[in-house]
Amino acid sequence: xxxxxxxxxxxxxxxxxxxxxxxxxxxxxxxxxxxxxxxxxxxxxxxxxxxxxxxxxxxxxxxxxxxxxxxxxxxxxxxx
Length: 80
Hints:
This protein is an all-alpha fold. 61% of the residues lie in helices and 0% in strands.
């Protein structure tokens, strides 16, 4: 899981400090997450998925599909 988080950060060209500033996740915590020394909370992994434009499932290794799921707003529009 942690390698995907680091990979997503690097693909977007963000430093760890930039991720901290954009998500509010403590830089020390984020560094530990990337190094596999700590698991992210659901709130943290959600913020990271939104920032990186991907899904939580991709970041945690459940799927290899990088594209995020449609938002609830998008689903409501398509169901009409």
